[in-house]
Amino acid sequence: MKVLLIDDHPLILSALQTVIQGLGDDVTVVGAGSARAARETLKKDGQFDLVLLDLQLGDADGFDVLAEFRQAYPALPVVVVSASDRASDVIRAIDLGAMGFVPKRATNETLFEALHMVMSGGIYVPAMTMGADKPAERPDGDTVPSVLRVVRDNALDSGFQTHPGVDSLGLTPRQSEVLALLLKGQPNKLIARELGLSVETVKDHVAAVLRALNVNSRTQAVLAVSQMSQQQGGFRKAP
User: Which end of the chain has fewer beta carbons closer than 10 Å to its terminal beta carbon, N or C?
Assistant: First the structure.
């Protein structure tokens, strides 16, 4: 596995390199101290399996870099490693396509758990983000619910936290495939193209998946499945 670490603090970059290297002898870690260095590294070598991205970079906004990389390298998973653990930051990162969010104060074991989950096709959202946080305002005036509110309301309204796992949702094989691609942040058009379906059919499947999870947005679906995955040991893709 080849990992690109992006952090503009040399000490943190060095520490993370050492930690990630501990995942195994087959792990190669490359560090980049800026967004510019990261861009140059990916242009020279497109064989990376994972990117770990800090949100606070000296030469760029981490959220902008996340969106840029997800657009330029859609098959390359990005995990945010940030000093922040605010629910609003977690939700924004997931909205932009991050496959995981790990606060820097997390333990090495938590980081390993997150990376294993992401590399197996899941999405990691740490339990420590599930605290009180004011909702962020969207440009259209709607509020973004906190991770706590999303999960808590689902639990109260539908017994969500008692579900034994994604397999219990009663999804059809096709709906499970749509869910797996939805969790990768793919829009309906790309899902339709990959599965050989019409966009309207994909919309119907997405609506069915959201109903099964008792949520009403893609971000809430990602958060709900992430919590279920952590409880049950990971999201399994449909065969």
Answer: C
Paired strand residues for 4: 30, 51
Amino acid at 41: T
Mark residue 193 as left, alpha or beta (left: phi above 0; alpha: psi -120 to 50; beta: remaining): alpha
Is 156's pLDDT higher than 50?
A: no
Tokens of 65: 């870099």
**Where residue 169 falls among pLDDT bands split at 50, 70, 90?**
confident
**Residues paired with residue 56 on neighbouring β-strands, in sequence order:** 61
Q: For the chain, give every residue range classified as CATH 1.10.10.10.
A: 136-232
Q: What CATH number labels 136-232?
A: 1.10.10.10
Q: Is the pLDDT of residue 222 over 90?
A: no
Question: What is this structure's pTM?
Answer: 0.65
What are phi and psi for residue 91, nearest 5 degrees? -65, -40
